[in-house]
Amino acid sequence: VQLQASGGGLVQAGGSLRLSCAASGRTFRRYSLGWFRQTPGKERELVAAISWSGGSTYYEDSVKGRFTISRDNAEDTVYLQMNSLKPEDTAVYYCAQPSTSAVVVRTGQYAYWGQGTQVTVSS
Asked: Least crowded by CB within 10 Å, which of 29, 33, 51, 67?
């Protein structure tokens, strides 16, 4: 499977960005998907995840109420709407897909990764 993340950029604190993850190469809609982020010297962390149907989601505590994950299976795309951005949200954001339809939270369960998109939030 090929995952292509896009939508990153530079934004001021309090602003918004929408990330997109477009998939190709296998039956995207059968599997859940997660958005991760990573900063230099730190481990990659799961920010949000969504089940195959979109009926189940997960959010890391620091983004609850600010980020929304959604998917359009007809377009083989998952989105991460990021509002009220903070400087601490600055990171490279990756989309990834496991080989399961349910939401999973362990990084090791994700087998397929996109290339990452940089999000920079200025104060």
From this structure: 29
Phi, psi values for residue 57, rounded to 5°: -135, 160
Tens-place pLDDT, residues 78-90: 999 999 999 999 9
Dihedral of the alpha carbons of 49, 51, 54, 59, in degrees to the nearest 10: -20
The length of the chain is 123
What is the gyration radius of the CA atoms in the chain, in angstroms? 13
Question: Which residues contact residue 56 at a Cβ distance below 8 angstroms, ignoring those fewer than 6 apart?
Answer: 50, 102, 103
Q: 91-98 and 117-122 as β-strands: parallel, antiparallel, unpaired?
A: antiparallel
DSSP 42: S
CA distances from 122 to 21, 68, 69, 88, 113 (A): 24, 21, 23, 9, 27
Cβ-based neighbour number of residue 36 at 10 Å: 23
Helix H or strand E segment including 68: strand 67-72
